[in-house]
TrEMBL record:
InterPro entries: AAE_transporter, KhtT, KhtT-like_N, RCK_C, RCK_C_sf. It comes from the Bacteria. It comes from Microbacterium elymi. PROSITE patterns: RCK_C. This is Cation:proton antiporter regulatory subunit. Residues 77-161 form the RCK C-terminal domain. The lineage of its organism: Bacteria, Bacillati, Actinomycetota, Actinomycetes, Micrococcales. PANTHER family: K(+)_H(+) ANTIPORTER SUBUNIT KHTT. Pfam families: KhtT_N, TrkA_C.
């Protein structure tokens, strides 16, 4: 599917970007000249008639973008693993008692010890894609991993309990 986005200049106001869905509905983001943002859902029959809109703050816009980004990245990864026999994804929560809380991802040596790849960390509804070994882990982080079933089981034990 090709995603269709239209840009509409609003002279003296700002710019509106419309995402046109497969069903013909329009979801718009209006960015005003003063930096304010507004989400709008437009009438399917009249693209100029806004059915409902709401102003959102910078923090709300960032959180919304992060939610979509994290959700999309994980769902694409899940789809890939469903299409590949023997490859799995796992979301591993970093528990409070883990010896790796406030340590770096590199300190876990997850790849070396378990042959599992860490592809992202989800923290406070934000995604850190392709984290570096220097990324400090925090209690409650969700570590998104890819590997074999045995490797993922070993990585879960490692993250929770530390090396054996």
């Amino acid at each position: 599917m090709t995603v269709h986005i239209e840009k509409v200049d609003l002279p003296g106001i700002g710019v509106r970007h419309d995402l046109v869905t497969e069903s013909g509905r329009r979801l718009a983001v209006v960015r005003y000249r003063d930096g304010e943002r507004e989400l709008g859902v437009y009438d399917a029959d009249d693209p100029d008639r806004c059915r409902e809109s709401m102003r959102i703050t910078d923090d709300e816009a960032e959180a919304l973008a992060d939610l979509f980004s994290a959700s999309l990245a994980v769902s694409r990864l899940t789809k890939l693993t469903e299409e590949t026999d023997g490859l799995y994804t796992e979301k591993i929560a970093l528990p409070a008692g883990s010896p790796f809380v406030d340590k770096t991802l590199g300190d876990t040596k997850t790849r070396t010890r378990t042959h599992v790849s860490v592809v992202a960390i989800i923290r406070d509804r934000r995604i850190i894609a392709s984290p570096t070994p220097d990324e400090t882990l925090r209690e409650g982080d969700v570590i998104v991993t890819v590997g074999t079933r045995a490797g993922l089981d070993a990585a879960t034990r490692l993250i929770s309990d530390g090396p054996e």
